[in-house]
Write a structure and sequence with these properties.
It contains 14 helices and 14 strands. It is of the alpha/beta class. The protein folds into 2 domains: about 120 residues, Alpha-Beta Complex (Aspartate Aminotransferase, domain 1); about 240 residues, Type I PLP-dependent aspartate aminotransferase-like (Major domain) (Aspartate Aminotransferase, domain 2), CATH 3.40.640.
Length: about 400
């Protein structure tokens, strides 16, 4: 019975066009990738700055492996916390302007660690309806009451905050929404949290390294300047999470916050305490990655020129680009079967663009998720746009 149920569910997924398949990558991430033995122009990675195969980082990985080996061998609290981990945490704190940071193995574990450590059974979590799955799962695991508000609807959020008398209140949101490319209104969110004595967890997985001055993230963008008397960057109500496997080009995640929050996570965040620390060699590499992010502004400048060129080119198609000022440029299709067809047609033309469908996005909102990198050239954008026009 158990296996019959599983087989039936898998069959239904396949019939609905929702079954996922893994492709085998046999090359570094770059403009062109080798997938299943074929070369494709790729718009499918989150390597926004093109750092994942940067020669400086490859060389630093070799150096780190020689010095630290390839594994941490223990959890951070049981002698697995290396000098490389410690130096990276200090560098990330300085880079983001927070008192302290804490490394996690990945963003999923970071979000689960933060939410479950800060709230519990008698508390309330407020979540944007389009949040990443890790934030949703974190809220459920915390056993706090979960209230989901309509996407970016701060009026609805404020109404919920007004009615809540919980001891602890936590608002959780993506900073940049990974399937839409739009950004949360950080100053207004921070002001609400100040007003109603709530904490604010920002998941800046897709903004760190790309947005803000020197790639320092969404808190350093013009739209995040202090408003309504709320100094966003220095607000004690903000807990900032960012991943290190996207724009930073390596792996892992970190949480930045006040010293009290970070110490609380060290003492009580189970996804930090009860897991082996990430390989120290990766922290060694990330120290060099941070330097490249900070000093090579040309990568972001080129990247956003490409974003603007793509927007210009796709105005000439019948499909609608969702509003986004980030390297995530979703083309709204709607139908699951249609987006799969277009994705296959693009692949036949040796172009990779992920076809995103439910449950990753709501029903009838399937889209192509075009992801741009600083490694792309204008000719790549024109080729993609010409191909999409022919398919439309």
């Amino acid at each position: 019975m158990f296996f019959d149920d599983l087989a039936e569910q898998l069959s239904i997924r396949e019939q609905q066009g929702l079954k996922r398949y893994r492709s085998i990558l046999d090359s570094p991430q770059s403009r062109y990738v080798d997938i299943d033995g074929n070369e494709y122009l790729s718009f499918g990675s989150n390597d926004y700055l093109g750092l994942s195969n940067h020669p400086v980082l490859v060389q630093s990985a070799c150096q780190g492996a020689r010095h630290y080996g390839v594994g941490a061998g223990a959890s951070h609290l049981l002698y697995g916390h290396s000098a490389a981990h410690h130096e990276l945490e200090k560098a990330l704190a300085q880079f983001t302007g927070f008192s302290r940071t804490l490394l996690f193995s990945n963003g999923y574990m970071a979000n689960i660690g933060v939410v479950t450590a800060l709230v519990g059974r008698h508390d309330v979590v407020f979540a944007d309806k389009l949040n990443h799955a890790s934030l949703n799962d974190a809220a459920i695991l915390s056993r706090a009451r979960l209230i989901r508000y309509p996407h970016l609807d701060l009026t609805a959020l404020e109404q919920h905050l007004k009615k809540t008398n919980a001891r602890r209140k936590l608002v959780i949101t993506d900073a940049v929404f990974s399937m839409d490319g739009d950004a949360a209104p950080i100053p207004n969110l921070a002001a609400l949290c100040e007003r109603y004595n709530a904490m604010l967890l920002l998941d800046d997985a897709h903004g760190f390294g790309v947005l803000g001055k020197e790639g320092r993230g969404i808190l350093f963008t013009e739209n995040s300047m202090p408003t309504h008397g709320c100094n966003v960057l220095h607000s004690p109500h903000i807990v900032y999470m960012a991943t290190l496997g996207k724009a930073a080009g390596v792996s892992g995640a970190f949480v930045a916050a006040s010293s009290e929050i970070i110490e609380t996570l060290i003492q009580t965040a189970k996804s930090y305490i009860y897991t082996t620390a990430g390989p120290p060699l990766l922290s060694h590499v990330l120290l060099h990655s941070l330097t490249l992010i900070e000093h090579e502004n040309w990568r972001r400048e080129h990247l956003f020129r490409l974003v603007n060129r793509l927007k210009h080119e796709l105005r000439k198609t019948s499909w609608r680009l969702l509003p986004s000022n980030t390297p995530i440029q979703p083309v709204f299709i709607g139908s699951t079967r249609e987006v799969l067809r277009i994705g296959q047609e693009l692949k036949a033309q040796k172009i990779l663009v992920p076809a995103i469908r439910p449950p990753t996005v709501p029903i009838n909102t399937a889209r192509l998720r075009i992801s741009l990198s600083a490694l792309h050239q204008e000719a790549d954008i024109i080729r993609l746009a010409d191909t999409l026009r022919s398919l439309a």
